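[recover] target loaded
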């Protein structure tokens, strides 16, 4: 059963990677893979995996029934546990995409694009990358990548050039999110779990994260030439009959960006999941736009209200995300990820090597369960008990936890499906998996290793 799940996952992964040659949408492959992995796990399980035995004993103490029925109920309980986590990500994604589309429908991004005058590729790449880097730390890498792709559509007409810039946006968004407690889901997990605290993680990781994006930019600065061509404004007759006013553009843009920035604040205050803050921001913006356009006729106001922009949301990319996360959660339930994490400890031993490998693996398998498995493998060591050099790595804000935040946050850039930002960009721009591998992956790995080496030089001994 365990081997069969791995086989199905690998075949599904290959189908996603070869989406264009086989002419099957990646969402179909991901959904099929996710459901099949869970079905094989449930139907083929002869016993409860060891790492779930304690939770199963608690479950059986609460529920009574025949052994087979209890086991089925427990597997359903575990599936719904993962679905609750997955749905929070999907609702977050839907909310962010809707807000971005609403701002775009009001031509709100002109507030930024009109201020970016250069068409030089190198200058534009630096502006976009650094803007993405710092915006990602304030928002999060997923939301930022959605916003920046929307901006690129206003700045670059040629699809291949825009794809290239979007690929660099993925690297910059992941690098920017890694050093902020609210910038990347894995850093947030470590922050909430008590492995790291906000001040040290920001101060210690900002330089390695900055190196992660600057190194690829320096390489491209030496090789990239020419200018970009801006797309002509697509303005239908409705733009001239009843255009959005300057007040409407500025108001919706300000409320949209403020709403996105409000999400981490809401989470900090209420401790509710981030998607709740996103839904609140969307609800407020929805109400404001309804009031703003209440006097317009239905035909004119539909394109600039939430009910209209919802039709433009790429639901196939959301379903693709659902399928991928279902498949990964099945691997987690079977115990494959825990076995892999244990093997890394036994074979490598060195905390830097372990984290570098985890980071690269996160480009293949989602970084969330990898970090969760790592958090489960190692306990936070009390400073009083950290008498050996190895144990000192696992104190709060220790080398292992900080370096894990960097590696898991930035390593996913090596492949476009290795991070939430990459998946969102892939869905919005329909970027080909193989195209990304050929043109972006090497730059991403180069920046990733450069940032990792920078952290090691700053804080550690490679032999530790």
């Amino acid at each position: 059963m365990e081997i069969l799940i791995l086989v199905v996952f690998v075949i599904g992964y290959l189908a996603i990677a070869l989406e264009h040659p086989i002419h099957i949408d990646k969402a179909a492959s991901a959904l099929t893979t996710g459901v099949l992995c869970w079905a094989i796990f449930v139907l083929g399980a002869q016993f409860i995996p060891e790492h779930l035995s304690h939770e199963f004993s608690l479950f059986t103490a609460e529920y009574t029934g025949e052994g087979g029925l209890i086991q089925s109920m427990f597997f359903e309980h575990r599936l719904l546990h993962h679905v609750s986590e997955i749905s929070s990500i999907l609702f977050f994604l839907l909310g962010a995409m809707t807000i971005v589309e609403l701002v775009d429908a009001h031509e709100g991004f002109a507030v930024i694009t009109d201020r970016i005058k250069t068409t030089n590729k190198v200058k534009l790449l630096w502006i976009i990358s650094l803007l993405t880097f710092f915006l990602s730390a304030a928002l999060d890498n997923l939301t930022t990548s959605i916003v920046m792709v929307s901006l690129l559509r206003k700045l670059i007409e040629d699809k291949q050039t825009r794809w290239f810039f979007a690929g660099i946006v993925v690297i910059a968004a992941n690098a920017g999110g890694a050093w902020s407690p609210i910038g990347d889901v894995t850093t947030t997990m470590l922050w909430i779990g008590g492995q790291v605290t906000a001040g040290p993680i920001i101060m210690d990781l900002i330089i390695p994260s900055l190196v992660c994006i600057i190194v690829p930019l320096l390489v491209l600065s030496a090789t990239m030439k020419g200018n970009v061509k801006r797309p002509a404004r697509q303005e239908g007759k409705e733009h001239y009959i009843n255009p959005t006013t300057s007040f409407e553009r500025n108001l919706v843009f300000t409320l949209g960006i403020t709403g996105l920035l409000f999400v981490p604040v809401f989470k900090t205050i209420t401790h509710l999941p981030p998607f709740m803050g996103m839904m609140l921001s969307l609800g407020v913006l929805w109400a404001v736009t309804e009031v703003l356009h209440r006097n317009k006729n239905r035909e004119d106001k539909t394109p600039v209200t939430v009910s209209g922009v919802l039709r433009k949301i790429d639901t196939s990319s959301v379903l693709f995300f659902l399928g991928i996360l279902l498949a990964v959660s099945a691997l987690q339930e079977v115990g494959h990820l825990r076995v892999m994490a244990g093997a890394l400890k036994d074979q490598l031993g060195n905390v830097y090597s372990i984290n570098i490998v985890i980071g690269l693996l996160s480009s293949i398998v989602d970084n969330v369960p990898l970090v969760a498995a790592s958090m489960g493998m190692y306990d936070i060591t009390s400073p009083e008990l950290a008498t050996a050099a190895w144990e000192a790595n696992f104190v709060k804000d220790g080398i292992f936890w900080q370096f894990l935040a960097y590696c898991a946050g930035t390593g996913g850039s090596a492949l476009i499906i290795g991070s939430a930002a990459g998946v969102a960009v892939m869905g919005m721009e329909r970027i080909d998996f193989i195209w990304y591998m050929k043109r972006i992956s090497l730059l991403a790995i180069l920046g990733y290793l450069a940032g990792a080496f920078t952290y090691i030089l700053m804080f550690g001994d490679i032999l530790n």
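[recover] notes: The radius of gyration is 23 Å.
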